[in-house]
Amino acid sequence: MTTLPDRGTAWPQLKTEMERRGSGDAKWREGKTAVYVFNAGADVLKVQKEAYTMYMSENGLGPAAFPSLRQMEEEVVGMGLELLHGGELATGNITSGGTDSITMAVKAARDYKLSSNTELNDSKLNIIAPWSVHPAFDKAATMMDLELRRIPVKADLLADVSAMSSAIDQNTMMLVGSAPSFPYGLIDPIAELSVVALDQDIWLHVDACVGGYIAPFVRMNGVDIAPFDFELEGVSSMSADLHKYGYCAKGASTVLFRDKTLQAHMIFDCDDWPGGRMVTPTLAGTRPGGAISAAWAVMNFLGKEGYCTKHRQVTDARQAIETGVRELGFSILGEPQLGIVAFNHPELDAFALYKQMYRRGWFTGLTTEPRALHLMLSPFHAEVTATYLADLKSSADAVRAGDNDAVQEAKYS
Ligand SMILES: *Cc1c(COP(=O)(O)O)cnc(C)c1O
């Protein structure tokens, strides 16, 4: 086990050692990683880094001490709400990431349910979601002792609204749809879920972690994207990650509510200890100022025009990949409209292809049902689609020639 060194080491030496360690990591700077990292280019990276370090020591836990951070958080939330059709009463907060946003929305929905006068049965409160929702919901359900009912998706890989509807009972505290789901990159029929939510008076959460900061701009770029946000009356809350297609520094997401009375169920207010009253909107105590300031800076740096341009590169890259893989005999899962695409081949095992691509330096995703290759694309990928397709062709040739060694599980997706 490593122990703390007796004496310190000079920073230049440590820096060299850290660079050496990074040399074995996935080669995202070359565009060969299509999961975990969003590479929007050198211009955005520079703003992220400088804006992050400017407020790295400040703490979002203390809005009275740091009105700068409070103002930046309000403005970031305001920008998110405008994009996602939040009305006059809509509000939200910055969290540390999608899992945090989802956990807090679940907590708010649970407390809302418990505060209402509906009669409950003896079972746990439950959440009804399509099978494709992110494991953050399982994590939140486990932590809060709730039941997550994952309902099989339809043949088109979208939420089965009538099956979800049939699964509702008096203990149902939340319905979930994804915009889009992470595995397939497809937007669930949120409008239909909204109707059910209104009808049965159930909280609907739209998980737009990976879509919230790209879909509005893809729409501005002329793509016909069906309504999926607060524009739909039945949507009570949303999660939308700044550190994904918002191209902000990691550690930043937004959790958004249709109105303040719903958000009130999230906020924790504690007075029963000797340190004085502490009010925290999200799970965190200390909140990294850098994540907030970097988000504010990147959003203002890009503006609508910048996002439209960056996201156009993403969708161009996706279309180039779609055309190329179809020519190689693959089929696309559904009709993705945003930055995620998954595809498979009628004869070649995706897990074997994955291993071949991995050997060629690619670090990407996989889906398990059906087995498919999975890409979450960034603007930078527009420059490497030809390389990707050439490597995929040679990987397909290798698998066809009998080099069938496959990865054992989809642990990267
Ligand atoms: C990434 C993602 C999450 C979780 O976000 P983290 O920031 O990784 O915690 C939740 N839902 C969807 C659809 C996602 O893509």
Verbal overview:
The protein is an alpha/beta fold and 413 residues long. It has two domains: 15-42 and 304-400, Aspartate Aminotransferase, domain 1; 48-299, 3-Layer(aba) Sandwich (Aspartate Aminotransferase, domain 2), CATH 3.40.640.10. The chain has helices at residues 11-22, 42-54, 67-83, 98-115, 136-143, 161-166, 190-200, 215-220, 260-263, 289-327, 350-359, 385-400, and strands at 91-95, 126-130, 147-151, 172-178, 204-207, 235-241, 253-257, 268-270, 278-280, 331-332, 340-344, 365-368, 371-376. A seven-stranded mixed sheet has the order 1-7-6-5-4-2-3, sandwiched between helices. A four-stranded antiparallel sheet has the order 10-11-13-12. It binds pyridoxal-5'-phosphate (PLP). Residues 97-99, 102, 134, 136, 178, 182, 207, 209-210, 241, 253 line the site of pyridoxal-5'-phosphate.
Mean pLDDT over all positions:
97
Portion of residues in helices? 25-40%
CATH class of the largest domain: Alpha Beta
Number of E-state strands: 13
Cα distance, first to last residue?
30 Å
According to CATH, the homologous superfamily of the largest domain is Type I PLP-dependent aspartate aminotransferase-like (Major domain)
CATH architecture heading of the largest domain: 3-Layer(aba) Sandwich
Bound molecules: pyridoxal-5'-phosphate
Q: Could you spell the SSE succession in H and E letters?
A: HHHEHEHEHEHEHEEHEEHEEHEEH
- The share of residues in extended strands comes to 5-15%
Largest sheet report = 7 strands, mixed
Strand order of the largest sheet: 1-7-6-5-4-2-3
The general outline is globular
In total, the number of domains comes to 2
- Output the structural class: alpha/beta
CATH topology of the largest domain: Aspartate Aminotransferase, domain 2
